[in-house]
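Journal club side-thread
Mid-discussion, someone asked how the predicted structure for our own chain would compare to the paper's figures. Pasting it here so we can look after the session.
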Amino acid sequence: MNAPDTSQASVPLKALSEDFVRKATDRELRVGIVGLGYVGLPLAEAFVREGLAVVGFDIDATKVKVLDEGRSYIKHIPDERISAMYGSGKFLATTDFNNLRQVDAVLICVPTPLGAHREPDLSFVIATTETIARHVQVGQLIALESTTYPGTSEEILQPILERSGLRAGVDFGLAYSPEREDPGNAEYGTSSIPKVVGASSDYERAMANALYGTIVPTVPVPNLRTAEAVKLTENIFRAVNIALVNELKVVYGAMDIDVWEVIEAAKTKPFGYMAFYPGPGLGGHCIPIDPFYLTWKARAYGLNTRFIELAGEINSNMPGHVIDRLAEAMNEKLGLAMRGAKVLIIGLAYKKNVDDMRESPALEFIDKLRERGMEVEYYDPYIPIAPSIREHPEVEGMQSIEWNEEALGKFDVALIATDHDNVDYAPLLRAVDLVVDTRNAIKQKIEKVVRA
C-alpha cells in the first residue's frame, strides 16, 4: 500500500475541519466521486453547478470515454448537460484512481446489490474503500452514499481506511449521507432533495454539512448508524405500502372492484391517508433490495423482520399473478392458449421515463412467458436494444419493435409493464385484441383492456 501524506497528521481534526469548512464556503473544495452511475453523475453535476471542482472516478473506461466526448449514457440526462459540465472547466472523468490524492472529499456511489440468498453484497463498497485506503490523505472527508445496513461505515469502511495508518475522526473525516436519487423525476432532482448527514464527531459532521450544504439543505443526525437507518426506513416504508396495495389489488379484483378507482377516491381524504399504487412487481436498485439489508442485520441481534419479509413475499409474487391473469384473459376473451401465441411487452424499464432495467419485472415476464411457450417481443422508447443483464442473459440483444399498427397487429396480446408518458396507446388499442394493463396506463374502460 502506498503511504499517505502524513505531514499534517499532528494537526488536530478541529483545525483540519475548520479549513475544510472554509474551503467549502469559498467554493474551493475539490470533490471526488467514485461511481458515475444514476447517483454519482447527477451528484457531480450538482457540485459543478455550484462552482466546485469535481473529479469523477469509474472503473468503466467506456463511461469515461463517452463523458469525455460530451455525451451521456443515461437517458434522462441529455448530452447538453454533460457538455455544460465540461464547459465549466470544473469536471474531469477518469479511471486513474491515483487522482484520489488530489481531492478534499471522496464520495462513494457504488452499487450494493443482494447475493443469491438475499444477503448484502458489499463487494463494490469494499473494493472501492480498499482503493481509497491506498490514497487517503490527512484532512480528507470520506463519505459513503450507497444504501446499506446500520453499522457498515464503522464496521467495514473505517477498519479498511485505517490500514493506511491514519485514523478516522483524528486524521480524516468519515461520514454517511444516503443518496435520495429518483431517476426521471422532473420535480425532484439532486439539487432539490435535502441530504441527511451522519458522522461520529462534531468535526466530521461539520465537514459533511459544509460539503453537502453547497448544493442542498442538510439534515444532520447524531451518528453514522442513524443516517444509515434513515435510508433503509425510507425504502422499507415504500416497499411495505406497495405490498399492501398489491395485496388489495388481488383481493378487490376477486370482488370485481377496481383498486385504481378505490385509490383515487381514498386519496381525496386530506389527512391520515397517503396514496400508493399497485404494479407488476418491484423494480430498480432500491425498493426490491434495500429492505433485506435490515433483515440480514437484524438476525445478528436475534431479531426477525416479519413485516418486511411478508412485504417482500407479496411483491415478489406479483409477476406470477400478472402472468396468471394474462392467461385467464386470453382464454376468456380470445379463446387462446398461451403456447404459440405472440405477446408484446410494453416497457422494459422498471419505471416510467427512464432507461434503467435493474430488477425490472418485465425481465421476469419475458422468462415466464417464454417458459409457457409464448413468442415474446417488447417495445420501449427508452431502450432500443436490451443491454447485458447478468441475471437475464437471454434478454441481451433483443430489439424494440416499431410502434405502428402494422407492427402491433401481429401480436395476440399486449402486456403493459411500464407506463412511459411518451407512448400513444391509440395504435395499440386499434391493432391488438387484448391488452393487459398493470399500471392503469389506459384510464378509460374498454372491453379489450384487462387490469392486472
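Post-session note: Residues 248-451 form a domain with the Rossmann fold fold (CATH 3.40.50.720).
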